[in-house]
Specification:
The structure holds 2 protein chains of 2 kinds.
Chain A (H helix, E strand, L loop, with lengths): L1 H9 L24 H31 L15 H30 L6 E8 L2 E9 L2 E2 L4 E4 L3 H6 L12 E2 L2 E2 L9 E4 L4 E7 L4 E5 L4 E5 L5 E5 L5 E7 L11 E7 L1 H17 L9 H9 L1
Chain B lengths: L1 H7 L11 H6 L4 H29 L10 H36 L7 H20 L25 H28 L12 H32 L13 H18 L2 H15 L6 H14 L15 H13 L1 H15 L8 H24 L1 H7 L3 H31 L5 H28 L13 H31 L47
Helix pairs in contact in B: 3-4, 3-5, 3-17, 4-6, 4-15, 5-6, 6-7, 7-8, 7-9, 7-10, 9-12, 9-13, 9-15, 10-12, 12-13, 13-15, 13-16, 15-16, 16-17
The chains are: A alpha+beta, B mainly alpha.
The complex binds copper (II) ion (2 copies).
One copper (II) ion binds next to loops of chain A.
Chain lengths: 293, 538
């Protein structure tokens, strides 16, 4: 029973928003697009398994049938045009099918038009900054904040802290190294465009449940989108080596219903009118100067 | 002219020089230099391996137990640099040095003094590189790929760049030497299309080396000037572009991965026919596939960069080009299996490693195909799935081929048989533990564990612990290898025959075991039926 539910969970019966123990495969994710990599992963894996069984199967047959100890005498042939043509053509056909599927999925990913919301994501050593740019065609004023590793994980992860990573929990969920002080809050059923960049070195913004990662590169603004189907908390990590605390800059996205999000956003706007947050410390020239100093 | 030159060197035609310094430090003999390369590679393999053991020990369970995160990054960076440039590449150059002249019937490498220089640069390069670990500020910690701006934050950048320049010079000289030897020094009658596949694989690899090592040198030099001479190649603050570095680096980097696998293909193409007692299937297709792979390797570099935000058209081009590589690679695998079909098989240690290579390298090829699919790569990229992929290709691929080649030719080198029992102990331990080590890393990547992190969420704990246990035991298994090598070279009582393996074909088996200091002073007469090729006349 436990094994069955494990297998079910591993192969997509339950949508997880965070990794879980003994997980064997990718998850289908939580956005309108995230099934694309998941399906491609499963299809290409299946293709590889079938080819593997055929090739390795033939090899094992050869290894048992043509053993010298069983009296096998070596044949002399070393050429067969028909065979060679077949095993060149058949893979080409399989590849064309895989290429067709991938190209379609990729093209839909690359289309950021028609988005209803824009969030700017900036990577820093070793935290993320989120600036809300616009929502439903309206510019958003001064809603932006830093998002860094939560305090409990941060204390536990110190070398020789003596603290137990298994004790870092939110409710029932272990959130060690996968929790932040202030998550990115977004609405569901909304095409959200992310403008991703960096203030120092290259980072990579990755929430597996959205199906993609995209590098945050200084001097470049990369665009990507997601459209989340179900409310929930989605966890990810920086995926490009960015220095000593690369392993300690998680990403948490909380997806709320549209009504809840609108409420949250107006609260934030009201708060920022009272005490405007400091401007984003992005300044490429100063960063470079600091690096060289 | 040539008579005078031969006459001058007449003295050392009788045997190796007696003094240690003269023999090893001043050697111009391809066999001694080959031995030096192999010993150097083995040393680096254990140094790089000790970095890997420390990495796996830190990742044994969640929480930081052993090292600070910055030192962890130094370990992953050094592990990559040492294994690639210190272990795998010099091992192949050593095998090429030893075997290419003997396989084409040449008395030595074409440029023996340059051969000495290309080896003796390497120890200096690696002393320079490894010394950074003991300097204030520590070693390089930006990954072996050295992406800016991160790599520019390292205080040891200049050391690393200089070390890489030295390695590059060494590789280029080695490659020139191999090309010159193969093109000019073949015995009469050894036509290009009669050469063993191993020689072909090295000829093609050498051209790749000459083409891309200067590109790497250029890329790291631009890093150096960006850091110390106020240029802005990769600095957006000065109008540069960090992504430019990645394009230049991977224009080197993808051919580089084939530099590390084509000679392995060559080795497997020698071992499989020998222990199948049957000529290699589709010799010409094998050579053509090597050339195809080498050509394609120049037009796929951006498949390492699908996450940097390339234009849609570029993503599609590099995806298709990458997928194409699986065709010639598939041909090679099918041909090896077909070579075995209808043969008369025995499974001595070299054959065991070759069989494991074919299966496990192919698994690495499968994950490579999956990685080529851009939308799926958006998930796989920079996770443990990639780590598993390239370790299947490089450890159970390149390294297994090197170990197989060592068992295959060791009796020819030393004149003694190695212990078949301990060879098999080494094989079975290696093949079991290497899978325990790397296979779970696929699951970790699919579950979302990024690579190059010193600590992780408890959800990743189970497979990391399994992987670490596999790692420790795989590492320990290699001590058996060391024991087998020492025993064979110094203590084995069992003398090797000239044609060590019943089914072995090719010129290297016509000389005595151990191979005398000088072979083929007089070019051999080639009898086609003694060569390893298959269907040349078909
Ligand atoms: Cu980062
Ligand atoms: Cu590549």
């Amino acid at each position: 029973m436990a094994a069955a539910s494990l297998a079910l969970a591993s192969f997509g019966g339950v949508a997880y928003a965070a990794p879980h123990p003994w997980q064997l495969n990718m998850e289908p994710g939580a956005s309108t697009w995230s099934r694309v990599p998941y399906d491609l992963n499963n299809i290409s894996l299946a293709v590889c398994v079938v080819i593997g069984i055929l090739v390795f199967g033939a090899m094992f047959v050869a290894m048992f049938r043509f053993r010298k100890s069983r009296g096998a005498v070596a044949e002399k042939w070393s050429h067969n045009t028909m065979l060679e043509v077949v095993w060149t053509i058949v893979p080409v056909i399989i590849l064309v099918a895989l290429a067709y599927l991938s190209t379609g999925g990729l093209t839909s990913w690359a289309d950021t038009t028609g988005s209803q919301m824009t969030v700017k994501v900036t990577g820093y050593q070793w935290k993320w900054r989120y600036d809300y740019v616009s929502y439903l065609g309206q510019p958003i004023e001064k809603v932006g904040f830093m998002s860094k590793l939560d305090q409990q994980s941060d204390e536990t992860r110190q070398l020789g802290s003596g603290m137990d990573p298994y004790a870092v929990k939110v409710g029932d969920e272990n959130t060690y190294l996968l929790n932040v002080d202030k998550p990115l809050v977004v609405p569901v059923d909304t095409k959200i465009r992310f403008a991703i960049t960096s203030g120092d070195v290259i980072h990579s913004w990755w929430v597996p449940a959205f199906g993609w990662k995209l590098d945050a590169i200084p001097g470049i603004i990369n665009g990507a989108w997601t459209n989340i189907k179900t409310p929930g908390t989605y966890r990810g990590q920086c995926a490009e080596l960015c220095g000593q605390d690369h392993g300690f800059m998680p990403i948490v996205v909380v997806a709320k219903s549209k009504a809840d999000f609108a409420k949250w956003l107006s609260e934030q706007e009201a708060e920022s009118k009272k005490a405007p947050p400091p401007p984003a410390p992005f300044d490429a020239a100063a960063q470079v100067a600091a690096q060289r100093g | 002219m040539s008579y005078a030159a031969t006459h001058d060197q007449h003295d050392d035609h009788h045997g190796a020089p007696k003094s240690f310094f003269q023999r090893w430090c001043m050697s111009t003999n391809h066999k001694d230099i080959g031995t030096l390369y192999l010993i150097f590679a083995l040393t680096m393999f254990f140094i790089g391996g000790s970095f890997a053991m420390t990495i796996r020990a830190e990742l044994f369970k969640p929480g930081l137990q052993l090292v600070q995160p910055y030192f962890f990054n130094e370990l992953t960076t050094m592990h990559g640099l040492v294994m690639i440039f210190g272990a795998i590449m010099p091992a192949f150059v050593g095998l090429g040095n030893w075997m290419i002249p003997m396989m084409v019937g040449a008395p030595d490498m074409a440029l023996p003094r340059m051969n000495n220089l290309s080896f003796w640069i390497l120890p200096f390069a690696f002393v320079l590189l490894l010394s950074t670990l003991f300097l204030p500020g520590g070693g390089p910690a930006g990954g072996w790929t050295m992406y800016p701006p991160l790599s520019l934050q390292s205080g040891s950048l200049a050391y690393v760049v200089f070390a890489i320049h030295l390695m590059g010079i060494s590789s280029i000289m080695g490659a020139i030497n191999i090309i010159a030897t193969i093109l000019n020094m073949r015995a009469p009658g050894m036509d290009l299309l009669k050469m063993p596949v191993f020689v072909w694989s090295w000829l093609i690899t050498a051209f790749l080396l000459i083409a891309v090592m200067p590109v790497l040198a250029g890329a790291v030099t631009m890093l150096l000037t960006d850091k110390y001479f106020d240029t802005s190649f990769f600095n957006p603050g000065g109008g540069g572009d960090p992504v430019l570095y990645q394009h230049v680096f991977w224009f080197f980097g993808h051919p580089e991965v084939y530099i590390m696998i084509l000679p392995a293909f060559g080795i497997i193409s020698e071992i499989v026919p020998t222990f199948s007692r049957k000529p290699i299937f589709g010799y010409k297709a094998m050579v053509f596939a090597l050339a195809c792979i080498a050509f394609l390797s120049f037009i796929v570099w951006a498949h390492h960069m699908f996450a940097v935000g390339l234009p849609l058209g570029a993503d599609i081009f590099f995806m298709y080009a990458t997928m194409l590589i699986s065709i010639p690679t598939g041909v090679k695998v099918f041909n090896w299996v077909t070579t075995m079909w209808g043969g008369s098989l025995t499974f001595e240690t070299p054959m065991l490693f070759a069989v494991a290579f074919i299966i496990l390298f192919t698994i690495g090829g499968f994950s490579g195909l999956m990685l080529a699919l851009v939308p799926a790569d958006f998930q796989y990229h920079d996770t443990y799935f990639v780590v598993a992929h390239f370790h299947y290709v490089l450890v159970t691929g390149a390294l297994f081929a090197i170990i197989g080649a060592t068992y295959y030719w060791l009796p020819k080198w030393t004149g003694n048989m190695y212990s078949e029992f301990w060879g098999k102990v080494h094989f079975w331990n290696s093949v079991i533990w290497v899978n325990v080590l790397f296979f779970p890393q696929h699951f970790l990547g699919l579950a979302g564990m990024p690579r190059r992190i010193p600590d992780y969420n408890v959800a990743f704990a189970n497979f990391n612990m399994i992987s670490s246990i596999g790692g420790f035991l795989f590492g320990a298994s290699q001590l058996v290898f060391l024991g087998v090598l020492i025993h064979c070279a110094f203590f084995s009582k069992k003398k090797a025959a000239d044609r060590v393996w019943e089914g072995a074909r090719g010129l290297e088996w016509t000389v005595p075991s151990p191979a005398p200091h000088h072979t083929f002073d007089v070019p051999p007469v080639i009898h086609d039926e003694e060569l390893a090729h298959g269907d040349v006349h078909a």
